[in-house]
Description:
By secondary structure, the chain is of the alpha+beta class. It is built from 4 helices and 4 strands. The strands form 2 sheets. It has a two-stranded antiparallel ribbon with strand order 1-4. It has a two-stranded antiparallel ribbon with strand order 2-3. The protein is extended and about 55 Å long. The two termini are 28 Å apart.
Amino acid sequence: xxxxxxxxxxxxxxxxxxxxxxxxxxxxxxxxxxxxxxxxxxxxxxxxxxxxxxxxxxxxxxxxxxxxxxxxxxxxxxxxxxxxxxxxxxxxxxxxxxxxxxxxxxxxxxxxxxxxxxxxxxxxxx
Length: 126
């Protein structure tokens, strides 16, 4: 498997919505980002009567025998809110208070086999 190619595809999907909006801080119509697969903190989800999801079940279809080893990595953007005003670019003004930025996160899950996963499903929270 060509992991470099997989990485390029993953980054393209990961940054699809994030890189497009907003075009600039002063643009009123583009102040709200929209991304695929957004997951909110559980308390926020519960306070909004579950209209915003706090978890995302994931299933994979794999082929092999009980000894086939599976390696899994999760990559996602973790939203950060900037708490101070800073210059966006020379001559473009300042970013507004509460400007949102994302930090790329990468979580490597423990390697397992198909046999192990058939005996006991795997859950990982973070």
